[in-house]
Specification:
By secondary structure, the protein is an alpha/beta fold. Helices cover about 35% and strands about 25% of the residues. The structure holds uridine 5'-triphosphate (UTP).
Length: about 290
């Protein structure tokens, strides 16, 4: 069985939903409590056993690469000032994992961004984690998917159940039973279906485990919804050729590239934070008591 060693993290999108905050700062660098979103994502990959991350970047995203780089000047200053805990924390970030960057010169869509990784990935199955999709879970979402890959040996998309009246905001999967817990065989996949056109509420989130054949289909995919090269279109073609599984992961997902999703993530991560959580919960209780919030 092939080991899943590499993860692609596309961060080349424009982040228009979060303007003006994202005019000069990549959305992946917005802070969730005390770390940028992208650090949680890379940490999930590392905790799942990934050995190499391929960042798909674009102009204006160099802060992301800098965040995981070694900063000699900062390291020296922290040492001189005897701020050794902080120095160690920063060194741990730069030692987290090997990172390769590939430039996507134009934002031609998620499918195109992943296709940019083909030479670095080569002929092995790999993970994709979207740079603005956070998952809070006991077992890292990617680890759950890698464990399932050990059983099904095919591509897997992570899904979550969403209210039926929100299906038109997501890529939706219609799937058949497999006899494996939380796992469905993908029968149909539609990007942002018009209301009433699907009975399924299984929405694709930003975690994929893909067979390398996906690159053949991405290379042939024509621009679809929004004029972008859609990953969903290539996934459909792959599903016809060798099958794809949908996996209802255990955990909670946050779309941190969306203003409300981001705020929910900040609150949920803050109340669970080991040192700030207690005081933050007290603050929430006090504002609830002061306001009309019941
Ligand atoms: P989004 O749908 O969140 O698009 O992309 P976006 O452009 O980043 O943000 P909005 O919608 O304008 O606010 C999903 C993921 O795909 C990446 C994004 O960086 C994000 O991680 N992406 C998207 C690319 O890397 N390149 C693209 O051309 C498009």
């Amino acid at each position: 069985m092939k080991k899943i060693r590499k993860a692609v993290i596309p961060v080349a999108g424009l982040g228009t939903r979060f303007l003006p905050a994202t005019k000069a700062i990549p959305k992946e660098m917005l802070t969730i409590v005390d770390r940028p979103t992208i650090q949680y994502i890379v940490e999930e990959a590392v905790a799942s056993g990934i050995e190499e991350v391929v960042l798909i970047t674009s102009e204006g995203k160099s802060a992301i690469e800098n965040h995981f780089d070694y900063d000699f000047q900062l390291d020296t200053v922290l040492k001189e000032k005897n701020k050794l805990t902080l120095q160690e924390e920063l060194n741990n970030i730069s030692n987290l994992i090997d990172i390769v960057s590939v430039r996507q010169k134009k934002p031609l869509g998620l499918g195109h961004a992943i296709w940019m990784a083909r030479n670095v990935i080569g002929d092995e199955p790999f993970l994709v984690l979207l740079g603005d999709d956070l998952v809070m879970s006991e077992v890292p979402c990617c680890k759950q998917m890698i464990d399932l890959f050990g059983v099904v040996q095919e591509s897997i998309v992570a899904v979550q159940r969403v209210p039926m009246d929100q299906t038109s905001q997501y890529g939706i999967v219609e799937g058949g039973d497999t006899g494996i817990e939380r796992t469905y065989k993908v029968e149909r996949m539609v990007e942002k279906p018009a209301p009433g056109t699907t009975n399924s509420n299984m929405a694709i989130i930003g975690r994929y485990l893909l067979m390398p054949e996906i690159f053949d289909f991405l290379g042939k995919t024509k621009p679809g919804h929004g004029g972008e090269i859609q990953l969903t279109d290539a996934l459909l073609a792959l599903a016809k050729k060798r099958g794809i599984y949908a996996y209802e992961f255990a955990g909670k997902r946050y779309d941190a590239g969306d203003k409300l999703g981001y705020l929910k993530a900040v609150v949920d991560f803050a109340i669970r934070h080991p040192t700030l959580g207690k005081a933050f919960k007290e603050h929430l209780r006090s504002i609830c008591a002061e306001s009309s919030c019941r």
